[in-house]
């Protein structure tokens, strides 16, 4: 199963087996919006998302990778990147508005996505790679929400640190937590190391590892690269250039992961909706004791711990929900198991 047949089959699995369960159990209200048609039909280019505080070298990194400036690029003191910018290939250098990047639906549109810009650059490296440059870290909830959406669309997320300030601010922490379900995509770059001694670099390296480990749930922190580069630059650039070779496999992997998350979410919603609690006190009791429900589902169905949602974030979102609207059961829940099985079969035949 290759080419268009492969794409059509994967899209059919999502639309007929995964999406109905997402809608039934309000998956998009707790996690991400439904996948756009473009997810299955756009050209198979890899993509990387750059995230970090201001003055950590995100835009300079873009210039190093593509070998030139992109239209409207600003580096240095004062206002710089002030929106999400998709740097992609084009024979003529230009910048155009793109308020529906990666096929985003109008349902998702916020002030940030509506201001998104596509910058086309005639650089060979961009024929197989799209780079999403971002503004500084903001405290706005919509900013974290948009970051989470972009994190789901891209293949790699690079977090930028300044070794002179490796502590993670509250807003940067919130941004990383918003992307927590995509930890496997994360890499780290820390810049401005050219004037540091080897001992100072190693100390900053350990501090970054420690800071990040406090935010992410995985045992091993993401791989760390020095932004002053040298061999690190060559290795990272080589990795980014090879991403497009396995784009189809990664998309299937992401769909499998999404189906597993949807199943766990459905099981949690069913358990929380049992008895259709309506009294405010009973609702609050179930929210406070969400961890017990979480553990019960985990043990009963022998599910992977990394597929579970963050307890605190789930509790916060549950606080605004009417539990009486939660489904108490679903005869079609096995659709998600069937979808996972079929997608795993696609992995064995996908080039």
From TrEMBL:
Top-level taxon of origin: Eukaryota
Alphabetized InterPro entries for the sequence: DUF5600, EHD_N, P-loop_NTPase
Domain EH, chain residue ranges per copy: 10-34
Domain DUF5600 positions: 250-340
Protein name: Dynamin-type G domain-containing protein
Organism this protein belongs to: Artemia franciscana (Brine shrimp)
Gene3D superfamilies in alphabetical order: 1.10.268.20, P-loop containing nucleotide triphosphate hydrolases (3.40.50.300)
A Pfam family that the UniProt record links to this protein: EHD_N
């Amino acid at each position: 199963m290759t080419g268009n047949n492969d794409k059509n089959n994967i899209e059919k699995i999502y639309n007929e087996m995964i999406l109905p369960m997402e809608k039934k159990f309000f998956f998009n209200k707790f996690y991400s919006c439904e996948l756009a048609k473009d997810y299955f039909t756009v050209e198979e280019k890899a993509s990387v998302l750059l995230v970090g505080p201001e003055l950590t070298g995100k835009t300079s990194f873009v210039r190093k990778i593509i070998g030139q400036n992109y239209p409207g690029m600003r580096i240095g003191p004062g206002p710089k990147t002030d929106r999400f910018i998709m740097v992609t290939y084009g024979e003529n250098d230009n910048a155009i508005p793109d308020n529906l990047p990666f096929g985003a639906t109008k349902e998702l549109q916020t002030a940030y996505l509506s201001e998104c810009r596509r910058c086309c650059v005639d650089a060979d490296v961009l024929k197989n790679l799209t780079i999403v440059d971002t503004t500084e870290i903001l405290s706005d909830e919509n900013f974290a929400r948009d970051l989470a959406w972009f994190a789901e669309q891209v293949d790699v997320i690079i977090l930028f640190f300044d070794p002179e300030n490796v502590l993670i601010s509250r807003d940067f922490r919130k941004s990383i937590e918003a992307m927590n379900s995509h930890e496997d995509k994360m890499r780290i770059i820390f810049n401005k190391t050219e004037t540091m001694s080897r001992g100072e670099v190693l100390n900053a390296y350990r501090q970054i590892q420690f800071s990040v480990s406090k935010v992410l749930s995985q045992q091993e922190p993401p791989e760390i690269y020095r932004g002053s580069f040298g061999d690190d630059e060559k290795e990272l650039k080589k990795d980014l250039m090879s991403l497009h070779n396995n784009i189809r496999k990664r998309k299937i992997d992401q769909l499998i992961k999404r189906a597993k998350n949807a199943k766990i979410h459905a099981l949690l919603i069913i358990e929380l909706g049992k008895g259709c609690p309506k009294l405010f006190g009973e609702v609050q009791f179930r929210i406070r004791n969400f961890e017990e429900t979480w553990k019960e589902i985990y043990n009963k169905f022998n599910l992977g711990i990394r597929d579970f949602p963050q307890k605190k974030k789930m509790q916060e979102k549950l606080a605004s929900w009417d539990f009486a609207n939660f489904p108490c059961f679903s005869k079609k829940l096995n659709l998600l198991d069937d979808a996972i099985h079929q997608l795993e079969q696609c992995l064995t035949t996908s080039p």
